[in-house]
Amino acid sequence: MNVLVIGGGNMGMTYAAAIATSNFLTDGSLMIFDKSEEKLNELRSKGLFDVHDQLATCLPKADVVLIAVKPVHAPGLMAEMKPMVSDEQLFVSIMAGVTIKTIRKGLGVGKVVRAMPNLPALVGLGMTSFTASEQVSRLELAAIERLLDTTGRSIMLPSESKIDASTGISGSGPAYIFYFMQALMDAATKMGFLEADARLLVSQTFAGAVELFNSSALSPEDWMAKVASKGGTTRAALDSMDGNNVNALIQEAAYAAFRRAEELGKQSEGKEVSHA
Ligand SMILES: NC(=O)C1=CN([C@@H]2O[C@H](COP(=O)(O)OP(=O)(O)OC[C@H]3O[C@@H](n4cnc5c(N)ncnc54)[C@H](OP(=O)(O)O)[C@@H]3O)[C@@H](O)[C@H]2O)C=CC1
Ligand SMILES: O=C(O)[C@@H]1CCC=N1
C-alpha cells in the first residue's frame, strides 16, 4: 500500500513520522507532499519518507491519501487534486469541520474517512475519532484504524454528528486540560512558588491522577471521594467548585466547541449558519 500525506505541518508530520516508525507499512511507500520550501527541507532532513514538492509525482501513485492541511486551504488543494485522483483511492481527512460531503464533492470521489485527532498524537498518546462514507469497505476501515492507531488510540463513530461531538471532548479537550493546568499554576505562583516548582507540582499531579484513573474502572467521582476527607481541604475545594458551577461551565465549554464544529461543517458545505 502506498500512503501519501498532504501537508507536513504539526499533524501531517506527526502522522508521517508515526507511520514511518511503526510496522504499518509492510510494503509500498510513504510519501509526503508540502508546498513550502522550508517545510520540504525539514521533511527531507528526517530521512524517514519520500518527500514530494509536486502533486503530480505522488498523488496518482497513492492508495491512501491523508489530508492534513488547514481547513482554509482545503478548497484550493481539492481543486488542484481533482484531475489527478481516482475512485479507487481512499482519502482520509483530519481537517476540522470539513465534511465528507464537501470532500466527496471537492474531489469527485467516493471513499472518504473523516477523522478528528488531537494534539497528544505528537507524543504517541493521541485520541482519534473517525467515521467513513459507505463506499469504504470493512477491510479498508480496519487498515485505516491501524494507520490512525500509529499515533495513539482511535474510536470509530457512526456519524459525522458524533465526530463534531467528539471534537468538543477529545479534539479540543487537551486545551481544556491546559486551561486547568494554567489556573493551578497561577494559584501556585500566587502562593509564592517559583514557576519551575509550580510546573512540577501541577504536571506531576495531573500525570499521577491520570495514571490512577487508568489503573481501575473507578469513576472520577469515586476517586474524588478517595482524595477528600470529611471536613478536610479537598472537600473545601470541591465545595468551592460546586458552588461556582464549575462542572456545568466545563460542559458548556465542550458544547461550545461541539456547536462550532457543526457550524464549520455547514460553512464547508456552503450553508448559512444561524446564530439564533
Ligand atoms: N492542531 C490540532 O490540535 C488539531 C488539528 N487538526 C487539523 O489538522 C489539520 C492540520 O493542522 P496543523 O498540522 O496544525 O496545521 P499546519 O499549518 O501546521 O500544517 C499544514 C501544512 O500544510 C501546508 N499546506 C497548506 N496548503 C497546502 C497545499 N495546498 N498543499 C500542500 N501543503 C499545504 C502548510 O504549509 P504553509 O505553512 O506554507 O501554509 C503546512 O505546512 C487542520 O486541518 C486542523 O483542523 C485536527 C485536530 C487537532
Ligand atoms: O481548534 C480547532 O479548530 C482544532 C480542532 C480540534 C483541535 N483543534
TrEMBL record:
PANTHER family on file: PYRROLINE-5-CARBOXYLATE REDUCTASE, PYRROLINE-5-CARBOXYLATE REDUCTASE 3
Domain called Pyrroline-5-carboxylate reductase dimerisation: residue spans: 160-264
Keyword Amino-acid biosynthesis: yes
Entry's EC annotation: 1.5.1.2
GO molecular function, one term: pyrroline-5-carboxylate reductase activity
InterPro entries: 6-PGluconate_DH-like_C_sf, NAD(P)-bd_dom_sf, P5C_Rdtase_cat_N, P5CR_dimer, Pyrroline-COOH_reductase
GO cellular component: cytoplasm
Class of the enzyme per the UniProt entry, highest EC level: oxidoreductase
Keywords assigned by UniProt, alphabetized: Amino-acid biosynthesis, Cytoplasm, NADP, Oxidoreductase, Proline biosynthesis
Catalytic reactions of this protein: L-proline + NADP(+) = (S)-1-pyrroline-5-carboxylate + NADPH + 2 H(+); L-proline + NAD(+) = (S)-1-pyrroline-5-carboxylate + NADH + 2 H(+)
Residues annotated for NADP(+) binding in this entry: I6, G7, G8, G9, N10, M11, A68, V69, K70, P71
Descriptive protein name: Pyrroline-5-carboxylate reductase
Record function comment: Catalyzes the reduction of 1-pyrroline-5-carboxylate (PCA) to L-proline.
Every Pyrroline-5-carboxylate reductase catalytic N-terminal domain range: 3-97
Family that this chain belongs to: Belongs to the pyrroline-5-carboxylate reductase family.
Pathway named in the protein's UniProt entry: Amino-acid biosynthesis; L-proline biosynthesis; L-proline from L-glutamate 5-semialdehyde: step 1/1
Subcellular localization(s) per the UniProt record: Cytoplasm
The keyword GTP-binding appears for this protein: no
Lineage: Bacteria, Pseudomonadati, Bacteroidota, Sphingobacteriia, Sphingobacteriales
HAMAP family: P5C_reductase
GO biological process: L-proline biosynthetic process
Chief location of this protein within or outside the cell: cytoplasm
